[in-house]
Amino acid sequence: MPSTARIVALDVLDVRFPTSEHLDGSDAMNPEPDYSAAYVRLCTDAGDGHEGHALAFTTGRGNDVQANAIAALAPYVVGRTVTDICDDLGGFARTLVHDPQLRWLGPEKGAMHMATGAVVNAAWDLAAKRAGLPVWRFLGEMSPEELVAQVDFRWLSDALTPEEAVDILRRAEPGRRDRIDLLLAGGYPAYTTSPGWLGYTDEKLARLAREAVTDGFSQIKLKVGASVEDDVRRMTAAREAVGAGVRIAVDANQRWDVQQAIDWMRELAPYDPYWIEEPTSPDDILGHATIRRALRPIKVATGEHVANRVVFKQLLQAGAVDIVQIDSTRVGGINENIAILLLAAKFGVPVCPHAGGVGLCEMVQHLAMFDYVAVSGTMHNRVIEYVDHLHEHFIDPVRIRHGRYVAPTLPGLSAQMHPASLEEYAYPTGPVWASRV
Amino acid sequence: MPSTARIVALDVLDVRFPTSEHLDGSDAMNPEPDYSAAYVRLCTDAGDGHEGHALAFTTGRGNDVQANAIAALAPYVVGRTVTDICDDLGGFARTLVHDPQLRWLGPEKGAMHMATGAVVNAAWDLAAKRAGLPVWRFLGEMSPEELVAQVDFRWLSDALTPEEAVDILRRAEPGRRDRIDLLLAGGYPAYTTSPGWLGYTDEKLARLAREAVTDGFSQIKLKVGASVEDDVRRMTAAREAVGAGVRIAVDANQRWDVQQAIDWMRELAPYDPYWIEEPTSPDDILGHATIRRALRPIKVATGEHVANRVVFKQLLQAGAVDIVQIDSTRVGGINENIAILLLAAKFGVPVCPHAGGVGLCEMVQHLAMFDYVAVSGTMHNRVIEYVDHLHEHFIDPVRIRHGRYVAPTLPGLSAQMHPASLEEYAYPTGPVWASRV
């Protein structure tokens, strides 16, 4: 490839799925989501057929705002050489995150930061495709020093220095090759949220929970938080369905105030919930710490709405969480997620990624597998969320075998959708929406 | 006015001022801002001539993203009756903040939350104009119960309950009328940042600092954080210019890591800085607490980039700040700022609003004066920031007399700009930009 090849286009598509029609994805804060993707595609003139694809996930309304925020980054990308970006993804991410004018819209949070994450992830997809590797292996081939160069340490040094990060990565270096082989042979453990949506009947919940166990999952998750009576009844049904040996996590999707979370969870405690996820505001570090102290040994988990590495840093410093739930499209892309994986390793807290939505399983599996290969070096007490929705729209969909993610082998980030899906679900002009809007 | 009058339009304008050409507003994180407004106008068919005007402030690039986020709220506003909105501004704000799909883009942070704030503030402007009162007096006429109904207590109850909020407001009720008279007679204390921009020469800094003292200001502020040697030199020049009796605050605009903030400020301590503002990430509650403990008696201030009431709650719970700096366009509008004023009152921490930019002085003065009238009941150790830029574009510009804000008397929020300014600085088509872009 000529080194003068350039990014010639950053295309953004508004793609939405009418998931609200079946209450898939319904929870205490998101009663009727239409799972959506603000989809980004980087095109080059390299002539090698490679494009960079990624997306920011939203739940419907506002997907146009998200798409517009991504489009605003085009001047920072179009016209740059492919090697300029792909050979220094850390520098590329920093130019987007620290633009002195755009950062006012955050800083490093909300729609603008998610837009940065989508563009950064598309660049990683392109870089990994050029290298002929799935992203988890592309990352797993980097030296500790190369990985640390991906990370923006601004605001982290009171918890993690570059030197400490190199040490963490060096300690995990010896077993990398074995762990890659283990992943290729046996995959990475998953848990399933598919039985537990709030809009499902008890019967459907129990049936799906039993099926999950049959399918090999050793953990399921229920949405809670709308009615404590309903939650007790649903938790009872779920526990009866799966027996004592299967972990049941519960997820309140931020519904509660601090004391309310404690009181509510005490009602559910007899049914042995494994973790309580998003008990309150994702910004409430001190609140999570209080909840965790009160509810021990029930674990506290959060992260899918945690805006950036600075909030994760404090959740760890304050002893506020037992589980760090990274998300592939909330923060500023893979670079910031590497920082969060390193922070979690430093504090010895397991990372169990959030997924579901559109393409979140596809993307985040790469981060969990990279964590196993090169950061934490272990799968102990680690699981990736799995939801069985919308995978058919992806060229390289996740595959689950015996309750585990099969390690992807195609080059890239697995976020690329079929052209037909992009067309059919385009909002509001695609055929699926033309008849509805 | 017929009670069937409706909101018939929500117009959004992208207005930018080329302030970067003179380095007005330059600081360690914002070297060349073009102060900008994503401007919103609510029009009704009431036939009474009243419109609701407000804006979200940005620093240039990204103002289009902000404007687009505001436009996405039009379906939540257009078609509703004027009384439906103006008679229940608390309910109106909650419908925008808690939309189950839009909230995914935050929740309650970044571009989407600022958009909510702009629209909510425009509704307050409309409501106050209909009542024939400036917003600070419109608020000051409300009963404690009416004020508490404006507040969204979600995620606050571990620090402040509605009952406590009513108590705070009841305690301040007796003196309201006297305090209104005192404000009308003598205004509210200001401090000025105009001398201290990072792009100014030492000579300009010293000259402007002396002028500030002559003009009656008893506090000025310097931008710091780019070079410790420069800061020591500039601080020396400023202290020499103003003497020992004038407070000099310094502002690092988030430039430092935690330990760096402590080390840097120890170099400046001999020159008696009054407060250090934004020493580090606005999300870093624990970091601010560490810095405050290390630097006592230098005060720690932050707030202009604090995303929402939940982060302010924790800054107060953690004893992380001596000064709460509310901003009129960062959070979800006047309703959320009422919550923050109540939290600050509960914890006994003074509120010294952030201002400057475009229209921030005009809007935030109403909140500080309302705080004095009905919440804290005191001006002790409280000052509103003042920057002498861009006021000429406003129909009801702030007026400073002897270093104090003159209490505004025209109805509304004072955010309405002259039609000619909106036209001239429209981006990118207005005459000011057509010759530049």
Write the layout of secondary structure elements.
2 copies of one chain form a homodimer.
Chain A: E1 7-16, E2 36-44, E3 52-58, H1 63-71, H2 82-86, H3 89-97, H4 110-131, H5 135-140, H6 144-148, H7 162-171, H8 176-186, E4 188-196, H9 202-214, E5 219-223, H10 228-242, E6 247-251, H11 258-268, E7 273-277, H12 285-295, E8 299-302, H13 309-317, E9 323-324, H14 334-347, H15 360-375, E10 384-386, E11 400-401, E12 404-405, H16 419-424, H17 431-434
Parallel strand pairs in A: 4-5, 4-10, 5-6, 6-7, 7-8, 8-9
Antiparallel strand pairs in A: 1-2, 2-3, 4-12, 11-12
Count all strands of chain A and give the number: 12
User: Can you give the mean pLDDT of chain A?
Assistant: 96
Structural Rg of chain A: 21 Å
Please give the most extensive interface between any two protein chains, plus how many residues each contributes: A-B, 62 and 61 residues
Per DSSP, what share of the residues of chain A sits in E-state strands of 2 or more residues?
5-15%
Principal-axis shape of chain A equals globular
- Count of DSSP-assigned helices of chain A: 17
Give short descriptive properties of this protein:
12 strands, alpha/beta, 9-stranded mixed sheet, 17 helices, TIM Barrel, homodimer, 437 residues, globular, 3-stranded antiparallel sheet
